[in-house]
Design brief:
With 158 residues, the protein is α+β, with helices and mostly antiparallel strands. The protein folds into two domains: 35 residues, no CATH class; 107 residues, Immunoglobulin-like. 18% of the residues lie in helices and 37% in strands. The chain is built from three helices and ten strands; from the N terminus they run H-H-H-E-E-E-E-E-E-E-E-E-E. The chain has a five-stranded mixed beta sheet with strand order 1-10-9-6-7.
Length: 158
């Protein structure tokens, strides 16, 4: 059979096969670093303890005939090594904010994640206090990290 893509020269054919099998060479370092970074995040949620919601002021008086509680909504999340207390403050029609504290008091970082992804990350001061903007709508969660612990809350509806 004589076909236009067939090689008459075996040396040329072997050279092309060798080139195809050796590949393009090593990947660029930036690609390797990005792949390693993505791989490192594969189980980040397993490293975080899920905090237990132990108090929600919006549930106070639910079983009695009463108006919704006035003032900020207070939430307390407890974990083994780290707990978080937050107040959801909404004044009028403007955007609200989350004011919180890590317990025991210590510096750390707090990440607010909404349905669309990370909204903002702030540092907690040496007393463990932090302040974040409240998302416009939808569920959110907080992820807190200190030198000794990493915790996350469950998803919370507004």
């Amino acid at each position: 059979m004589n076909h236009a893509s067939w090689h008459d020269d075996d040396d040329e054919l072997l050279a092309e096969l060798r080139a195809a099998l050796t590949g393009p060479g090593p990947a660029p370092q930036a690609t390797v670093d990005a792949a390693r970074g993505a791989f490192a995040w594969r189980d980040v949620d397993r490293e975080l303890e899920l905090l237990v919601l132990t108090h929600d002021s919006s549930q106070d008086g639910v079983l009695v005939r009463d108006a919704a509680p006035a003032g900020p909504r207070t939430l307390v999340f407890e974990g083994t090594d780290l707990s978080v207390e937050v107040e959801l403050e909404v004044e009028g029609e403007g955007p609200g904010e989350i004011v919180g504290q890590l317990i025991p008091p210590q510096p750390g970082s707090v990440v607010l994640t909404a349905g669309g992804g990370v909204v903002v990350e702030v540092d907690a001061d040496p007393r463990g206090c932090f302040r974040l903007p409240l998302p416009d709508r939808g569920p959110f969660r907080l992820t807190c990290r200190t030198p000794g612990a990493g915790v996350t809350t469950e998803w919370l509806p507004l």
